[in-house]
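Notebook, p. 212. Picked up where the previous page left off. The plan for this session was modest: take the two constructs that came back from the sequencing core last week, fold each one, and keep the raw output in the notebook itself so nobody has to go hunting through shared drives later. Recording the first one now, exactly as returned: residue sequence, then the C-alpha cell string.
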Amino acid sequence: MIEISFTKLLLLAVVALIVLGPEKLPEVARTAGAVLRRLRQSWEGVRAEVERELEVEELRRAARQAAAEIDAAQARLDAATRAAQQAAAEVREATAAAQAATASASPTTPRDEAPAIGAGGHDAADEAGHGDRA
C-alpha cells in the first residue's frame, strides 16, 4: 500500500495550489473527494459481493457434506433394516421348525385314558379303598 506521510501530503497540497490556483483548488478537491468516495463505495461493494459469494460457497459445501452424511446414514439404515428382516425370517423359520418338531414328538393320548380325579382330589382307586394308606 502507498504510504503518504503528513509532509508528503502537505507538499502535494502546495503543488496543487500553485498549479490550479486558489479559485479552482476547492472545486478540484471536492471532485477528488467525490471520486475517492465512489471508489471506496465500489471497492466495498466488490468486497461485500466476494464475501457473499464465499459464504454461499461455504453453505453449498456444508449442504453437500450434510447430503453425503444423510446418504451414508440412509445406507446404514437400509443395511440394518435388511439385517432385521433377515433375522425375523430366521426366527419365523426356527419357530415353525420347533412347532413342527413339537407336534411330531408328542404322543397322542386320548382323554379317556387319563385317571379320573374325584371331588376330594383323590383318584378313583383311592376312593374305592384300594389306595396305599398306612
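Okay, moving on. Second construct, recorded in the same format:
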Amino acid sequence: MIEPQEPQPRFPSSDASWNDLRCTVVRHRAAVGSVGRRGALSLFAGAASAGFLLLSGRSVRSAMQPDAAANLVLATGSEIVATINAVDLPAAQRRGTLGVILRRSVDIPGVGQFVLGRQWGLSAAAEQQEFLRLFEELIIHTLSMRFSSYAGLRFSLGRSQQLSEDEVLINTAVEYDGSMRFTLDWRVSEVAGVPRVVDVIAEGTSMRLALRSEYAAVLSRNGNRMSALLDAMRRQVATLAARG
C-alpha cells in the first residue's frame, strides 16, 4: 500500500529565498533571491485548464471594473495592515479577524477548485465538499499565521491593469520591519456579482498556480487517489491547529 504523502502548500521559514518556492513546485531549481523575495516567499509558499473552467462562479462572472477592483484591494489591504499592527490584540483574536477579512475578500472555493484542477471533475460530490472545507481551513490558517508574523506592516496601492473583460490586476507594494519590501499583485474578478480576489502574485509567482502544482504532485505520488489527498490535508489541519 502506498502511504499518503503530506501535501506541500505551507509556508517555509522567512529566511528561505523566493526561489525555494519554485524549487518546491518544479523540484529541480536552486534557491537564490533577494531580501524582498524572501519576504514574499514566507507569505505564499505553501498555499489545469479543466480546473480553470470549474472555478466557482466562473459562469456568472461579468465585466470587472478597475475602480471596483482597486477599492476591494485597498480595503482588504488596509484592514489586514490595521489588524497586524494592532500590537495589543491577542494573537488568537488577530488570526480570527484576519480569517474574517480573507473569507470576505477572497474567492476561496474558486481558488480551491482551480488548485484541484481536473481531479475536481473526477471526484465525488462528498469528496469535493470535504476538499473545499479542508482547503479553506488550510488557506485561512496559514495566511493568517503568516500575515501575523510581519511587524510594522505598510501597504501601498499601485496601478491597475485590465487583463480581460472580467479580470483586473492590481499592483501593490508591501513593506515590513522598517525596510523589507516586496511586490504583491492581486488578480480580481467579479464572482456572482461581487468583486473577489482570485489569485495573489508575489514577486511574479502565482499562489494558485504554485498550490495547484503542489496538490498535483501529492495526487501523482498516491495514484491520483482523492482519499489520500484528503487524509494528508486533515493531518495538516490538525498540525496547524495544534500550533494555535
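Notes on construct two before I forget. The domain at 34-242 is CATH 3.10.450.710 (Nuclear Transport Factor 2; Chain: A,).
Flagging for discussion at group meeting.
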